[in-house]
User: What shape does this take?
Amino acid sequence: MNGIDSSHDPALRSWLASANAAQTDFPVQNLPFGRFRRSASAEPWRIGVAIGDQVLDLHAAQHSSGWPADLGQALAALAAGDLNTVMALPQPRRQALRMAISAALAEGSAQAASLADCLLPQAQAEMALPCAIGDYTDFYTGIHHATTVGKLFRPDNPLLPNYKWLPIGYHGRASSIGVSGQTFHRPWGQTRAEGADPVYAPCQRLDYELELGVFVGQGNASGRPMGMASAEENWFGLVLLNDWSARDLQAWEYQPLGPFLAKSFATTISPWIVTREALAPFRVPFSRPAGDPAPLPHLDSDINRTAGAIDIRLQVLLQTAAMRAQGQAPQPLTTSNYADAYWSVAQMLAHHSSNGCNLQPGDLLGSGTQSGPTPDQGGSLLELSGGGKLPITLASGETRSFLQDGDSVVLRAHCERPGARRIGLGECVGTVLAALA
Ligand code: MN
Assistant: This one.
């Protein structure tokens, strides 16, 4: 895996000035896909590409002359608002599409004049989920999170023996996935305090989880595992993902079959899918601590060892209702890096399909909470507050063990390294509303 080509050239500039700003998440080297329409309109949803502070409308752009003729099928699907069809394309076709969009948006493009009429400011766009999500599975690849949370739930036995042999996951709920801006009511559920009978009441220990979401590209036929080589080519791209979690429901319900209602009430993702191809410059070696078991052959490959991990800098911020009322910006709580994950993206796909389960274009896989190695790098409040025992104090003077009504959680991520153009994943924002009576 190298995959670095002229579309990643850090010297490449766009004819659109805002795409050349140093800190933009969306320079011409990124080119993420999302689904949008003009705010407060009833227009059909369209697929667009984020570029600088604008969206390139691929419905309008289909009429620009200069697209390579062999992209007709992909462009027609995108123009119709259908990203799943493009996700299902073989990787070389997705790569060809990226090269064509890169050329069209690059400085000096003959398409510049016609495409300049196909832009909408992102500030005037309303975003939807980027594609049809058939199934959602949440993994648990953050070993620092798994160890810290394991200690809280099982002090004598934090990391169960299967953890280092296979990527642990559970089947999540696709219907309650929403796009950034999502609000949801504090869930009700059954909880049990130590020594008391269970009660049905609003969740008291509501939490977020800092995760990435992986969109599956081309799927696999039922009964035919993907294998690592195919898995590596068959993931489409990444978004930020907040796996909202009701810890009190979770502690009571999770044994023996894992999370259920503690997770299924809401999941929020960022609107722009940053493609696998855009992330090529940020791939780094995937390694295990000395003495840990080597992955079994069906979860191992040369590419995975040399470039299976991805250097993505992750951040969580919190804005309370009081902060919002006073015009205070969200306060940073945590940073971590996706390169610390214990299992790679390809290993999640290969494991998920290893029993013959068919993955489909647009399926979503959560990475699990990505906490860093130090205590201040917990990717959830459960970790940062020591299971609720050590509330954190915010700059506003407020304290939090778990989320309060009106709290907004913001996830951000970007990639940067010397010799490559910085790219970002945008934002994933969600807000807690009071429980319904
Ligand atoms: Mn999770």
